[in-house]
Amino acid sequence: MKVRIIALILILVGFSSGQTIPKTMDASINEAQRVWELAIKAKGGREKLYSIRNIQNSSVDYIYFGLKKVRHPQSLLVVYPDKMWSWDDYRPGVFGLQMRMYNYAVGKFYIAQDGDKAVKLKRIQRDELVSRRFFPRLIWLLMETRWQKPIPEKLTSARIKFRKVDVVQTRLNGNRIDFFLNRKTHLPIRVDFYNPNLGKEGEHLDVSGYLSKYYEQDGMMVPKKVDGVKQTYRFNVEYNEDIFKKAPLPVTKAANAWRKGWKNGVNR
Question: Region 166-189: what's the mean pLDDT?
Answer without folding.
Answer: 93
